[in-house]
Amino acid sequence: MDFLRDSQLPEAFWSEEEVLGELYTQMLKVVRHKLWHKNDAGDVVQEAWVRILEKRSTLRHKEKLIPWAKAIASNLASNANRARRHERIDDYLEHEIAGIKSVFDPESMMELSDLLGRLDPVTRTLLLYKFYYGLKDAEIATALQLPVGTVKARIHRGKARLKTQVEDVDRYT
Q1: Full-prediction pTM beyond 0.70?
Q2: What are 63-74's pLDDT values in tens digits?
Q3: Rounded Cα gap, residues 144 and 137, in angstroms
Q4: How confident is the model at residue 9, as a pLDDT?
Q5: Angle at 37 between CA 86 and CA 53, to 5 degrees
Q6: CA distance from start to end of the chain
Q7: 41, 64, 81, 130: least CB-packed within 10 angstroms?
């Protein structure tokens, strides 16, 4: 930790325990603020420590250790969020596929057909392209000559309408 002592802070400040404690506190604050799942904070800070030790030779200005460490911790927290998002999407798709398998009884198919029939033709077409035929948003946009953002927004609103209809049907049955 000799390189830490080159800073312009008073010598009394730079006991190793105080420096490490301050670094840990600062990184933990950043990580907790940025993470969606606060339980991952300890793991992310630990990974940040590893990165700091691996990359310590790249620190140009020793007095910028704390901001540098916070930036590393922040980037790792973003990476952790990104990884969690992918896990969440995979779990959602797995759940949806399991749900679809149970939908194939004739009564459910009739109910689904009825619900889709209540939607306007454009929304119905978008939802069928997306979920029945499995087309990607960009493919749908190309086929319908619409911007991708428009397709995404209409699919989102269509799913919301369909969900509202399902809730209405459940409420009255």
Answers
A1: no
A2: 788 888 899 999
A3: 11
A4: 46
A5: 90
A6: 70
A7: 64
